Amino acid sequence: MKALLLFVLWVGVSGCAAFADKADYADYRKVRLAHDDQTRLLAMRSYVERHPDGAWRDSVQSARAARDAAAFESGKSSRQGIERYLKNFPDGVFAAQAHSRLSAIALIEQRKQEDAVRAKELASARAEREQVLHKTWVTRFLGYWLKTLVGLSAWGEPIPDVAKNNPAFSRAFGARPRPRCTRDECVKFYESHFAIPVPGATRVERTLSLLLRLRMHEGRLARAELLMPAQGFSRWDEFENQRVVVDGDSEGRERALGWVQERIAAWVAVLGQGAAPLADYALGSIEQPAIGPNGELTDTTAEDPGAPPSHVQVQDAQEPQREPEVAELVQPKNEPTPDMVFAPLQVDSAGRAQTAPELATPSAAGPLVPAASGVAASSPSILRAFTWRALRIVFFASPLGAAGPAYDGVVIEPARPGEGAPAGKAPQLRTQRH
Asked: Quick check: 68 and 94 in contact, CB under 8 A?
């Protein structure tokens, strides 16, 4: 009898636990002995799922319900937090909202991933575009000035009238590097240092120089020259194609001139049928300028139609900058070269340059250079000579072993009466892109 009484008392104290099976009790024990909150929540979920009629189901489910809202609130802002909530409360009060948030987060992550891929593509396209711009600046530079010079009105007029009637030309010619002028000529100097990798060696260091010269006769514009000294067409080929042309190597020189003539043909092609060849034309020797550089020997960006706007525009630092489209970086826009806002060419009524920060006379900027130091300039070989409208345009190259300045380049000047087509509307030449 005493033993029976003790058993009844134990049942009363232990409640339903006395009738729980071993699996029920083992899973409940995991809830009681969980060492952290996450483990306990998982154990509680496991218990109510495995023991829908378990001895402790009501108390465990009640404890879960009490923690539902806090678990959702603490994890609702992140994928990890929401996934943890759904793992612990797949049947929770906020389960539907958690799934909705998870879908939204997945969409955001997808967009971020797409943005990252796009940013990488943009960076790659930008780097490629910058490389192309650097590699082809000489081609684009020559194309720009050919377009500008053949489009001039007022050939043969005083240089102030040329500047007044051609404001885009005036702004560009007056830009850095500053031109230096005498009564007879105005010259702009450019220079670019580059290196060509050589297999089995380090690299070959080169310098590519250009000068743009306007020649006047009694203060009137008589001729424009784009000159590349020291057999500059070979340097141009080296610069753009990254292949060495050894000075004195006739085969390498012919290859370089063949490549240059392809560029010339592309420029001439846009002139159309108005270009009439000049047969048996002989160009006189190209004399070295009497004006030396003023120290502003620099790569051109001012005359470069492909230069990024940041070269000539300054944006507010607080203004958000739109990321350019890939097409904007890779595909050049088919539009005219915009006017560049620079100091205009400053000359007086007699065609003399005014001494100013933007345009210095030789005496204000440095010594004169002796004309070829007494060495006669060599007569160049004609690569292409033709007339177009009222102009004569001649592409030429210096022969191997030439004495003197040995210029390669192009000369643009008014044609003799009857030599070219009748004068008409100012020529319009589109810059070729390569």
From this structure: yes
Spatial separation of the C-alpha atoms in residues 429 and 144, rounded to whole Å = 9
Residues with Cβ within 8 Å of residue 294, at least 6 apart in sequence? 177, 178, 180, 189, 360, 365, 366
pLDDT of residue 408: 95
139-142, long-range: CB within 8 Å, 24+ apart, which pairs?
Answer: 139/236, 139/240, 139/263, 139/432, 139/434, 140/304, 140/305, 140/306, 140/431, 140/433, 140/434, 141/190, 141/210, 141/300, 141/303, 141/304, 142/226, 142/263, 142/410
The answer for residues whose C-beta is within 8 angstroms of residue 188's C-beta and 6 or more apart is 173, 177, 178, 179, 180, 211, 212, 213
Q: Are 56 and 28 in contact (CB under 8 A)?
A: yes
Query: Do the Cβ atoms of 412 and 392 come closer than 8 Å?
Result: yes
Convert the pLDDT of each residue in 202-237 to its tens digit: 889 998 889 999 999 988 999 999 999 988 999 999
The answer to whether 189 and 297 have CB atoms below 8 angstroms apart is yes
Helix (H) or strand (E) segment spanning residue 162? helix 159-165
Domains of the chain, by residue range, sit at: 136-303+340-414
What is residue 76's three-state secondary structure? coil
d(CA 434, CA 43): 69
d(CA 126, CA 324): 9
